[in-house]
Structures are given as C-alpha cells and as structure tokens.
Write a structure and sequence with these properties.
By secondary structure, this protein is α+β, with helices and mostly antiparallel strands. Helices cover about 20% and strands about 45% of the residues. It has a four-stranded antiparallel sheet with strand order 2-3-1-4, with helices on one face.
Amino acid sequence: MGEVAVQYKVMPDPDVEVAIDDLINSLKNLDESLGKVHRIEKKPLAFGLMFVELHAVVEDAEGLVDKFEEEMSNVVGVGEIEVLGMGRLL
C-alpha cells in the first residue's frame, strides 16, 4: 500500500485557554500508528490570532485519514481542522 501526504490547518479552540506552543507539543505526540507528523509550525492568521499548520503522512488505507483526524480533534485545545491539501506519495 502507498502513503498519503496531508496538510492541515488546525485552529485553536476559542473556548479552551491553551498556549499555541503547548498545542504544537501535544500534536507532535500523536499516535504514530495512525500517521506520522513530519512538519508542524505556527502561522499568523489575523489580528494576532495564530493557527497550526501540520504536515503528516498516513498509510493509504480505508478510514486511516479519518482516524488520524479524529485523534487530532481529541487533543485538548484543538478547535477546527481543515484539510489544505492531500496527495498520494509514490
């Protein structure tokens, strides 16, 4: 089976007070059996707000990308998750 590279935009949950750096550290420690985080960085959005851009590689199997996204959404402080790009790796 192949692999899929996925780029995410992760917005902090406005109802949970968590520092963006703490959120990044939590996302770095996701379960590697679902997918591997390759790059993660904070980026400016507007008016001093920041978001997290996360690049991950997930096995190209049915439902694994969804499980990886579910794992991300369970991290304390994660609000909205948006897929910015996805492509199959050769």
